[in-house]
Amino acid sequence: MARTWRIGLGALLIGAAGQVAAQEVPSAIGRISYGNTFRSGSAICTGVLVTPDLVLTARHCLARSQARPGMVQFAAGYSAGRSVVTGRGAEVILSTADVTASMANDVALLRLASPVPMDLVAPLPLASPDAGPPSAPFNLFAYRRDTPEQAERQDDCALLTTAPGVLALSCRVVSGNSGAPVLAKDGEAWQIHAVMVASSRGGQVHSLAALVPPDLRARIEESF
Fold it and tell me: 3-state class of 49 per DSSP?
């Protein structure tokens, strides 16, 4: 039986694998941190701006902050101490979808206190729910808790199998990668297919990503 771990807050660190390249990260992808001051080694997650005021991430990255969303900070395009823009949370939005697997419900939205101007950061779109898997492996841009100053890229996240609401992938993930968008290109533009939620030790399966539930997808579409 495969064993899984949440990878956002204080979870097991496992060694990164796959091709990781220091290439340009879409500015809509950013680091999620907690409190007024970030300290080295503190818990982090990854998130992605999907509308000017909504950040998509993993549910377990935000569930503890539901009563105090203002303690959550999203730094879009964060790199080496600088971000394109930084925003504070105003509301944590959890899915109420009826799903068969807990991993499939591990998706949430953070509504920012102030919208991000689209001329500064262009939100990334969701892939159509009817879209099939891409012909090439998925890409993952994500921050790591042990090296939180720069997002890293993995471009070899092969889809191995699926379960209701969940993709089982080949790329290895570490603490801090939770909430990262699982991306594929439609032409020249990135689209979000799922959200990274857990590491796994199940043969060739090294990570699990959750599809965006219908209620959160509707909330995103309503915000435009």
Answer: strand
Domains and CATH numbers, the chain: 14-24+125-212 (2.40.10.10), 29-123+215-222 (2.40.10.10)
Q: What is the pLDDT along the chain (224 residues), one digit of tens a residue?
A: 344 445 544 332 223 333 334 458 999 999 999 987 777 778 899 999 999 999 999 999 998 899 999 999 999 999 999 999 999 999 999 998 766 667 889 999 999 999 999 999 999 999 998 888 888 899 999 999 999 999 999 999 999 999 889 999 999 999 999 999 999 998 889 999 999 999 887 678 899 999 999 999 999 999 87
State the Cα angle at 55 between 4 and 36, rounded to 5°: 90
